[in-house]
Amino acid sequence: MEKPDRPALAPDLLHSLLVGPGQPVRRLEVLETVDSTSGWLAREALVDPSAWPHPALVVADHQQAGRGRQGREWVVPERAAITASLLLRPPLEREALTWLPLLAGLSVARGLRATAGVHAVVKWPNDVLVPVESDDGAVVLRKVAGLLADVLTDGAVVVGFGVNVTQSSDELPVETATSLLLAGAATTDRAIVLTALIEGFSEVLGRWVADGGDVQGSGLAAECAELCVTLGRRVRVELPDGTAVEGVAERLGATGSLVVSTVDGEQEFHAGDVHHLRDSEREHGH
Question: Which intervals hold domain BPL/LPL catalytic (predicted)?
């Protein structure tokens, strides 16, 4: 595959698209290189909270020590991905924040569908997958984006997200990953895709806050379930303590948890690595 063009992000362009009256962001910082956008933003926001209004965005051309779930490292070639973090101060009870990873996943999936033209879906709790053709011609779901939410000591939340944009197959860390380029996206312009994702976050989070964190009344819980390809599948949930449980993922719980039907009855999971064990009858476009 010919090496794709990987231009640097243009700070002035991003400011014009995202910051200002009626725009989704109140402060934007565009960094050339950073260890982790989430780590950098958390440190800065705790030192001077007043300098970081809700919502604030940090995006980097190159992230050298990105972090995934359970502390896993996530490293990508320079300018090949969207690596960004949002600082949020939602006026909601802390208990409502458990839905943030799912709401972020919903926003990213919708943004990729609308802008990149890929049929993105969400794997519980915070992976975004897109269909690609495998070597044997079968259509399989591969991870194109991941999200991670951290609550800071002052109650603010940092939502970090990474989207693989122009990586080739040999630049991806695992065979279960893909990029927008490999998925045949309509655009791999990072500014265009990032703008769509942030506008999507703004719309979803605005509805969530307007309804006082009520994901049921706002319809957001149903929308998350609609795009969650995990539901209806047979899964194995690998837990932080090293144990694993198998069953059928039935529904999302009241806190955004995953309710799984097992041989011992229904079990509710708030964390864990979920593996899809077989194809389900749910359509990718469901």
Answer: 20-209
* Same-domain check for residues 215 and 242: no
CA-wise closest residue to 57 among 100, 97, 25: 25
User: Is residue 107 within 8 Å of 227, Cβ to Cβ?
Assistant: no
Domain that residue 260 falls in: 231-276
Q: CA–CA separation, 49 vs 227, rounded Å?
A: 35
Number of domains in the chain: 2
pTM confidence score: 0.92
Burial 91-112 (b: 16+ CB within 10 A, else e): ebeeebbbbbbbbbbbbbbbbb
What's the CATH code of the domain at 272?
Answer: 2.30.30.100
CATH of the domain at 183: 3.30.930.10
Q: Which residues of 187-218 are buried (b: 16+ CB within 10 A; e: fewer)?
A: ebbbbebbbbbbbbbbebbebbbeeebebeeb
The tens-digit pLDDT sequence of the chain (286 residues) is 567 889 999 999 999 999 999 999 999 999 999 999 999 999 999 999 999 999 999 999 998 875 555 455 556 889 999 999 999 999 999 999 999 999 999 999 999 999 999 999 999 999 999 999 988 889 999 999 999 999 999 999 999 999 999 999 999 988 899 999 999 999 999 999 999 999 999 999 999 999 999 999 999 999 999 999 999 999 999 998 999 999 999 999 999 999 999 999 999 999 889 999 965 434 444 4
Q: Are strands 27-34 and 73-74 parallel, antiparallel or unpaired?
A: unpaired
Statement to judge: residues 89 and 128 lie in one domain: yes
By three-state DSSP, how is residue 59 classified? strand
Bridge-based pairing of strands 81-88 and 56-63 is antiparallel
